[in-house]
Amino acid sequence: MRTGIITSMNWAEHAHAVLNEAGHRRGGARHAVVDLLSHEDCCLTAQELHDRLRAKGRPVGAASIYRVLDLLVEQGLVERIDTGPGSARFEVRQPSGEHHHHIVCDDCGKVEPFADEQLEHAIHEAEKRAGARAHHVLLRGACEDCRAA
User: What is the DSSP string of 67-104?
Assistant: First the structure.
């Protein structure tokens, strides 16, 4: 896994460079998935990726999407976020370390991003004490729409 911070490239260029450096050939499915992920602000399921690629006229098979996602996770370029039993979402890991966390609605399944500076500070302090390198916070509850209903 490559750990250097790339400031002169966007995430897609960074991802392709890391994968090329690791000896992985550039294929159509990989390019399509990386390109789509680079334009997303939050996590997606593999099915959502599949649907969005098809809507853009880029038919990529589900098996190819899963292979690309596995490779991106393995290389530290994407984070797999387990949102419930049998449910995973995938989100770009920025080389800068910039990130957000997620709230999952127990009623409708909607996933929303959130950031909290005080929480982030407390987590970074805990990481230092524990020798941890990364974290993700997943909160469960009801989304705004379900709370209103």
Answer: HHHHHHHHTTSEEEEEEETTEEEEEE--TT----EEEE
Q: Give the sheet arrangement for strand 138-141, strand by strand.
A: 111-114, 101-105, 138-141
CB 136 within 8 A of CB 79: yes
Domain of 134 in residue numbering reads as 100-149
Question: pTM of the predicted model, to two decimals?
Answer: 0.81
- CATH code of the domain containing 20: 1.10.10.10
Q: What average pLDDT does the chain have?
A: 87
| pLDDT value at 6 more than 70 | no
Q: Are residues 13 and 35 in the same domain?
A: yes
- What are the residues facing 125 on neighbouring strands? none
Identify the pLDDT of residue 86. 81
In the listed set 59, 80, 96, which residue is the last one of a domain according to the structure?
96
Domains held by the chain: number? 2
Cα Rg of the chain (Å, integer): 16
